[in-house]
Design brief:
The chain is an alpha/beta fold and about 400 residues long. The protein has a domain of about 250 residues: Rossmann fold (3-Layer(aba) Sandwich), CATH 3.40.50. Helix content is about 40%, strand content about 15%. The strands form 4 sheets. Strands 6-5-7-10-12 form a 5-stranded parallel sheet, sandwiched between helices. A 3-stranded antiparallel sheet has the order 9-8-11, with no helix packed on it. Helix 5 runs parallel beside helix 14, helix 6 runs parallel beside helix 9 and helix 7 packs across helix 9.
């Protein structure tokens, strides 16, 4: 008589059962994530991993404007992190030192104990400069040179109407005598037109845009959250495959200086006044006029500092590549500076143009801008800005 035999599940049955269980588990996580509106891609964490300087401001002020939320701080190499987070293949800022970048209770780059100041600076990223030490900001250095307390209310991703509002709401103390608006020729006209349209729409509808971390685009699909990184990984491992990601490069020119050929990014070719739309010319004068009227209502002296772009300052020391677009190659010095000077003269505003001093540094073979990916002044450029501004403010 045969002994008793136990019928155990076959290997294929066990495998099938495991696959079904795994699929049911995935489906459960997928449905639960969508029902709970859970963000599998962790957008908030990704936002906070960005250097503050490169984040879009989300704290609403005024009718349609935004500033940064404060107090806040971020530690790390700002430029290198910003470049790496774009996914670009360019190599730059490998030796950049990590810095502690701090913002005051209102979200601006000032010491927390600053209660009174004589000079206030307003502008966008060219005034915030959230990758430099506080001591190297041209606003800080102007205060040191003139021996006067200075406040900086610069905010990235904003335009001239926002600059003016920041001075009215955050830029005035008992001892404030001077207000300086920093106008960047690269994108201030574009931002000006955007803010002008937002103000018009608010007057009509009474509604404004709001930005919140909770409103960041969530990825509630677990399968997509793990599938997209897997797809990208496959694209990297098998570059010839259909999922290959296009290479992102910022390098499109060279700076020919004292240290040889330095890889460079060029983004802005400033327009001539003849290239502007009639509405842009009107909007620019509206902003200059509002700046003049606002400062006079506040009983402070108005100034405007012209911040030139990289293409203008480095004009005589550039070598182009096959990735340089024709408008950038064939650009010739624009008359936007002259037009701004006329507007400032007409509205009683002192204008300061640091372009000649920055260009002089170019002839010495010295770079005054961050070379790759970023459009802003490096430490040398910021120091030169401070010297020109302080000298002009003292002499007038």
């Amino acid at each position: 008589m045969d002994g008793c035999k136990t019928n155990s599940p076959s290997l294929s049955f066990k495998l099938l059962t495991s696959l079904v269980a795994f699929a049911v588990g995935l489906l459960a996580v997928e449905l639960l994530g969508q029902l709970m509106d859970f963000d599998f891609s962790r957008q908030k964490a990704a936002f906070e991993a960005q250097p503050i300087f490169y984040r879009q401001p989300i704290d609403p002020i005024g009718t349609v404007f935004f500033k940064r939320t404060g107090p806040d701080r971020w530690y790390g190499p700002v430029l290198r992190t910003g470049l790496q987070q774009t996914g670009a293949v360019d190599k730059a800022y490998e030796e950049e030192e990590p810095l502690l970048i701090t913002y005051d209770r209102d979200g601006f780059r000032n010491p927390e104990n600053l209660d009174e100041w004589e000079i206030v600076f307003t502008g966008d990223s060219f005034t915030e400069l959230g990758y430099l030490r506080y001591e190297d900001l041209f606003t800080t250095r102007v205060g040191r040179i003139l021996e006067k307390p200075v406040k900086n209310v610069g905010v990235s991703h904003t335009g001239p109407f926002s600059y003016i509002h920041c001075v009215k709401e955050f830029g005035i103390s008992k001892g404030t005598t001077d207000a300086v608006l920093v106008f960047f020729e690269g994108n201030d006209l574009k931002d000006l037109m955007r803010e002008r349209e937002q103000i018009r729409e608010f007057k009509i509808t009474g509604q404004r845009e709001y930005r919140d971390l909770d409103q960041l685009k969530k990825q509630t699909s677990f399968l997509k959250a793990i599938g997209f990184p897997l797809r990208d990984w496959i694209g990297e491992k098998w570059p010839g495959g259909r999922w290959r990601k296009p290479e992102l490069r910022f390098h499109n020119a060279y700076f020919l200086g004292a240290e040889g050929k330095v890889p460079l990014s060029l983004f802005y070719a400033p327009p001539n006044v003849a290239d502007l739309e009639p509405d842009e010319i009107i909007a620019l004068e509206e902003a200059i006029k509002e700046w003049s009227e606002t400062t006079r209502q506040l009983s402070i002296r108005p100034w405007l500092v012209f911040a030139p772009c990289k293409r203008r300052v480095l004009d005589d020391a550039l070598e182009f590549t096959d990735r340089t677009v024709p408008p950038m190659v064939h650009w010739t010095s624009s008359d936007l500076i002259d037009h701004l000077q006329k507007l400032c003269d007409a509205h009683g505003i002192n204008m300061i143009d640091p372009t000649p001093a920055l260009c002089k540094e170019t002839t010495k073979g010295n770079l005054t801008f961050n070379p790759m990916f970023d459009t802003h002044f490096n430490q040398r450029g910021s120091h030169i800005m401070s010297e020109v501004i302080a000298e002009q403010m003292r002499s007038r």
